[in-house]
Amino acid sequence: MSEPLKIPVLSLKGGTGKTTICLGLAEALRDTGNKVGLLDVDIHASSLPRALHLEKEPGYDPILGGKLRPVNFNGYQLFSIGLLFTEETPNLWDGETKASAVRQIATTSIAWDDDLQWVVVDTPPTSGDEVQSLLTHLQNIYGAVIICQPNDLSLLGIAKTLNMLRETETPIAGIVANMAGYKCPHCGQISNPFDRPPEDVRVLANNFG
């Protein structure tokens, strides 16, 4: 069994469309003939089960034989930390416990199929301990994808995230400036809802090499 390539998808804050882009990336890889896993370790607000209208089948046990058990869904394998808890369960873990849980789930304990080629990882929306620990221990990373919006706060977050990726020696696959414009349904004009043009994201990325 060869180690599948990992694509961690990062965002410094919630609400950027990170989970939606994870889904799109997993489906694009699947549609080009790859065996794909989708891993949700967003311990703060796991939203994949709700986004996919995914409900546990009767008798489903997320832990089997000492390993976490992914589900087969829509042509790919999926495991979400949301399958371990109910949406109403409060997360009272401290930072170190969260970091340890994310690291263990992502690196050692999932019973993926042997022929899996890619794993897209939906990470917590932070550059804190959970993500740093994950990136330090995750094996066979193809490249991280950073999700942002073209505004001042998000651009500051990109700089922090890029520096974190440098410190953890994580390769970078790209930056997505999401929600960069919307098209008027009446006149067809595209407007930018934020205070910076999308090109500023490209400039920042080029400055970091």
TrEMBL record:
Signal peptide limits: none
Pfam family, one: ParA
InterPro entries the record matches: NUBPL-like, P-loop_NTPase, YlxH/NBP35
Keyword ATP-binding tagged: yes
Keyword hit for ATP-binding: yes
GO biological process, one term: iron-sulfur cluster assembly
Keywords: ATP-binding, Nucleotide-binding
Entry's Gene Ontology molecular function annotations: 4 iron, 4 sulfur cluster binding; ATP binding
Protein's UniProt name: AAA domain-containing protein
Organism: marine sediment metagenome
